[in-house]
Amino acid sequence: MMYDIKVIEKDIKSKLSSFRYQHTLMVVEKAKKLARYYQLDEEKATVASLLHDIAKEFTEEEKKLWVEKYHLSDELLKEEWRNIAHADIGAVVSEVYYGVDKDIVNAIKYHTIGNVAMNHFAKVIFIADKIGREEKSDIHLLTERLAYQDLDKAILFWIESEKERLENKGKSLHPNTIKLLKFLLKSKKCDKI
């Protein structure tokens, strides 16, 4: 399927703050490189990464409208999930307005917390979102290095690091991220990092 990337990019630029737009462009760059490395569709990686944060700066009212209109989980409106609700909502927005395929929908939906159902394409977008930023910590840098060795190991490393960061703040991972962590730990591929 062909997408009009210029139109999508123009739309995104008009909908996002300068900060969010710059992050999006960095995610596009990382996603394209990873897609090329793993011989995945670079055009789809560009589209998914352009759209991954389309709902990030929606108002609470806009989020509520999308949740109600498209019968999404009310859990998305809870305060504790406020920072990740944009993934599910953005997936629907992308499908409705841009007619993207299921790979792109799922990549957008899973880019914040992950999911055991992620395919290689969704994993690329997940990782690109984590490493697509101007200022990178050692965790970001190691995640990026691992991504070119094994996507699962990179995701496992990121989740374990995020788990520790959240626990230090008295918080915990999303239940779906915990399921993904357990899945990856059971995988023979992720014995050691």
Protein architecture, described:
The longest helix has 20 residues, at 18-37. It is built from 10 helices and no strands. It starts with a helix and ends in a 7-residue tail after the last helix. The relative contact order is 0.12. It is an all-alpha fold. The protein is globular, with a radius of gyration of 16 Å.
Explain the layout of strands and helices.
Elements: H1 5-15, H2 18-37, H3 42-51, H4 60-69, H5 85-98, H6 102-110, H7 120-131, H8 138-147, H9 151-168, H10 175-186
Helix pairs in contact: 1-3, 2-3, 2-7, 3-6, 5-6, 6-7, 7-8, 7-9, 8-9, 9-10
Determine the structural class based on helices, strands and strand pairing. mainly alpha
Largest sheet: none
Taken in chain order, the helices and strands follow as HHHHHHHHHH
Characterize the overall form.
globular
Gist?
By secondary structure, this protein is mainly alpha-helical. The protein has helices at 5-15, 18-37, 42-51, 60-69, 85-98, 102-110, 120-131, 138-147, 151-168, 175-186.
